Amino acid sequence: FDDAAALQIPWPKSWPAAVSGMLQPSALIESADSIITDTVTSLTQGQVKSVPPVQAAKLIIQDACRRFKVTEPRMLYSSSGQLRGILVQGAAAAAKAGEGTPADLACICVAMLRAAGLPARPVIGLGSGNRDTLDEFGVWAEVFMPDCGWIPFDPDMLRQQAIATLDPRQPWEYFGTMPQLQNRIPLAWEFASDEGRKAYDAWALWSWTRFLPTSDFPAPIQNGAINTPNGPYRLQPA
User: 211: pLDDT confidence band, cut at 50, 70 and 90?
Assistant: First the structure.
């Protein structure tokens, strides 16, 4: 990714139809929520297009990473060690809490980019570039740049590299240039298919119709079981 060349590319008159859907709110990416839109307006003073789109994207990601505290792991497990899914509360809830998981940080970045008029999407896959998380899903993100296409970035890795000190007009490692990207396998652009309506138990890439559509989500587990109208559904040990 050539940052210097990208800085010369202006905002387009319109975005390609193929990416316009990535400007709209979606499950966990509540880009129209006031806490997201107000933050973007305050940051940009309503003049987001006064700088090139790549610089605007970096400023937004920088602000999100500076404000947010990562306190949780990416994955959700049961008390017996079973993998339930991805631990994520979504952009709006995470922004209000000010803390959460690396997946939440990616959601906030994507939501803020969309609110600013930049197509963006989360990426959920295998591998994160961190040897300590080989057994977890990796969560990063992409923003669409004119004449460049989808540009990957990793908010959590940027956060760990003191992103607040980085100049958005200079190249950033983990924005466009992603070390070991060849070791990451992207699987999806949403945390569960059909915006979670076909996610079982918790946000996860596997998709089964929920056996109790009206239950809380993620489904609460008490004493090793999930309560249903037909009685407790007991989970087997891993």
Answer: low
The rounded radius of gyration (Å) of the Cα atoms in the chain is 19
Measured CA to CA in angstroms, residue 155 lies from 47, 105, 114 at distances of 23, 7, 15
Report the distance separating Cα 87 and Cα 202, nearest Å. 8
Query: Whole-angstrom Cα distance, residue 233 to residue 238?
Result: 15
Are 152 and 140 spatial neighbours (Cβ–Cβ below 8 Å)? Answer: yes
3 state DSSP class of 40: helix
> What residues have CB less than 8 Å from 136, skipping those under 6 apart?
73, 74, 75, 128
Query: What is the torsional sign of CA 146, 149, 150, 153?
Result: negative
pLDDT band at 200 (very low <50, low <70, confident <90, very high): confident
For 46, other C-beta atoms within 10 Å of its C-beta total 10
Pairing state between β 120-126 and 99-100: unpaired
Has residue 207 got a pLDDT over 80? no
Q: Is 26 helix (H, G, I), strand (E, B) or coil?
A: strand
pTM: 0.88
